[in-house]
Structure formats: structure tokens, C-alpha cells
Amino acid sequence: MNSRNERLKIIIIGTQAVGLIVTLISSFIGGLYIFKGEWLYAVPISIIFVVSIYYLVIFFCREKENRRKKGYPPIFFYLFGLYAIMSIVLSFFVLHFYNVEMNEKQEIQSNGTNKINGVKLIYTSYDEQYNDFLNKLEADINSKITSYNNYPNTRISISNDLLSAPYNLDQVSINSIAGSTSPSNAVKTNIDIRRQGFINHKQKILTNENKINLSSHEEFIDEQKNIIDNWDRLQIGKSLNELNERINKDYVGLNNYLIDKTNNNYKIDFEIKNYINQTLMDKPLILASKHFGIGSILVVLMFQLLILLPYFLTRGRMFGF
User: Fold this and answer.
1) Residue ranges of domains in the chain
2) CA dihedral defined by 118, 124, 126, 132, rounded to 10 degrees?
3) What does the alpha-carbon distance between residue 97 and residue 291 come to, in Å, rounded to a whole number?
4) E strand segments, 45-185
5) Over 50: is that where the pLDDT of 320 sits?
6) Residue 258 has pLDDT above 90, yes or no
7) Of 13, 98, 18, whose CA–CA distance to 50 is shortest?
8) N or C, which end of the chain is more exposed by having fewer CB within 10 Å?
9) What whole-number distance in Å separates Cα of residue 215 and Cα of residue 203?
10) Mean pLDDT, to the nearest integer, of 4-11?
11) Higher pLDDT, 118 or 1
12) How far apart are CA 75 and CA 213, in angstroms?
């Protein structure tokens, strides 16, 4: 008899451990999906609720074992009400985990890939536009300096042009370039300085604006592509959120700088609305409604059964409730 009781206790402990581990993992990851990858919210909610349910189920099991003829004490029902509320919340997290993993994963990955392409387009378009501008600027300055040296009677007019946008040379620079042994090399040096300005601004947007250390936008894109393609559950929510922020902020920061430095002649050809479509990863109610069916019901029932299985397996007295 004792041997049977010991085996039953081992079974109860085993099922409780399995139930708690499954609940903790699925509710934690479901929380990460809901809170856009923020561990600050997902961790305490999953741990506090799971630990609380663990002790509540232990209490229910003991009450069942020691149940008196008149039934359970009032505290049992009060705590069971608390358990019901907490289990509903956890069921919500677990169901969201199930819906994302089984029903929405491919759509989320497709959406993430589209966002990555958007960020890539912003940076590559910026590079192409400022290089086109600088190449044209270099050719124009060379042409004007040649005329400046060959036709002295046009110098005032040419100087006025070079002093204004988009050339923005000062008179000292004009004289220095025109008087150098190789004006084309002097112009190239001036253009390289401007090019470095565009590069520096891109790096500022890439790092300082987002408070992370990256050497290039290609590095960021490769990093995010790896997260989304490999479905990194711990990072994907944060990745999607950061991609949206970059599409909005980086586009504005780079495009405004490009427009300003090119005298409104160049801009990034980009439509934000085509790349910031939201996924349902952080919208559990909408996602649950979208995929509601027998699968959702079974997931919730199985979750509840797994949590309460130790209570059902516990031997209680035959009298009373």
C-alpha cells in the first residue's frame, strides 16, 4: 500500500513538474510576443503567476487529502477563485504562444522580411543619391574652375555661382583650387570631404540615434535577417519593433540631411506606408479571434488539465464534496 502511494506521489510530482515547465516556457514566450520582446514585462508575469499557481495546486491537493466530512473550508473556494483568475491570464498567454507559433509564424516572417527590405532600401538609396549628387557636383565644379582659369572676364560670375548652393565654396577655396597645380585633384579632395560628411551622418543615424554599436547598416540587416529567418523567439518581437522604428526615424534623419545638403535636388525615393504594416504578434485578442476554433479550445483545455492533473490524481476521502 505504501509502495502504491509512493508511486502515486512520484507521478503527481512528475506531472506537476511537466505542467509547470510547459506553462512557464509557453507563457513566457507568449508574453515576449505580446510585449514586443520586452523581458521586463514577460519575465515577472510568467514567473509570479506560475509560482503562485504551483502553491495553489499544492494547497488544493492537501485539502483534498485532508478533506473533512463537511467538505472544504471557505478558504479553499476563495483561493480557487484566485486560481481561476490567474489561470485565465496564463491561458491567454499560452494560447497566444500557440497562435503565433502554429498559425501566424509565416505571415510574421514575411512581414519582417519586408521591413528588412525597407531598411535596406533607405540606406542603399541614401548612398546612391549622395554619390550621384557628389559625382555631378565634382563634374560641375571642374567645368566651372576650368572656365574660371581660361576666361578671366567670367570669374566674378563663376565665383558667385560657386559661392552659392549646391557648391557652397568660399572664396579662399575657389582661389586655392583654381591656383593649384592640379585643379581636378583639388576638387576631388573637396568632394571627398563632403562624401565623408554624408558617411559620418549615416553612421550617426545608425548608432547614436538607436543607442547601439554597429559598423554598417549591412551588419544590422544581416543581424535582423538571422533573427527573423531562424525564428529567434527571444528576439523577434524586439526585432520587428526596432525595424519599424528605423523605417520611421532613419528615413527622416537621412532624407532630411540629403535634401538639405543637395539644395532640395536629391531625396530618398521611399514610401514608409509600404513597410510599416503591423503584425498580429503583439495583438493577442485580434489574433485569437482570427484563429478561433477547435484548436484554440483544445489548447486551453489541455493547459488547464495539465495544471490541475496533480489535483485530479491526488487521493481524497470518499465522503464530502
Assistant:
1) 2-104+283-313, 105-274
2) -140
3) 12
4) none
5) no
6) yes
7) 18
8) N
9) 8
10) 70
11) 118
12) 55
- Mean pLDDT in the chain? 87
Structural element, H or E, at residue 80? helix 74-99
* pLDDT of 256 over the 50 cut: yes
What CA–CA distance (Å, rounded) separates 258 from 269?
12
pLDDT in tens, 275-297: 998 899 999 999 999 998 898 89
Residue burial 280-306, b: 16+ Cβ < 10 Å; e: rest: bbbebeebbeebeeeebeebbeebbeb
Amino acid present at 207: T
Q: H/E/C letters for each residue in the chain?
A: CHHHHHHHHHHHHHHHHHHHHHHHHHHHHHHHHHCCCCHHHHHHHHHHHHHHHHHHHHHHHHHHHCCECCECCHHHHHHHHHHHHHHHHHHHHHHHHHHHHHHHHHHHHHHHHHHHHHHHHHHHHHHHHHHHHHHHHHHHHHHHHHHHHHCHHHHHHHHHHHHCCCCCCCHHHHHHHHHCCCHHHHHHHHHHHHHHHHHHHHHHHHHCCCCCCCCCHHHHHHHHHHHHHCCCCCCHHHHHHHHHHHHHHHHHHHHHHHHHHCCCCCCCCCCHHHCCCCCCCCCHHHHHHHCCCHHHHHHHHHHHHHHHHHHHHCCCCCCCC
At residue 32, does pLDDT exceed 70? yes
Evaluate if pTM is beyond 0.70. Answer: yes
Q: What is the pLDDT of residues 162-184, one digit of tens each?
A: 999 899 999 999 999 988 899 99
Residue 237 CB coordination number (10 Å): 26
Determine the length of the chain: 321
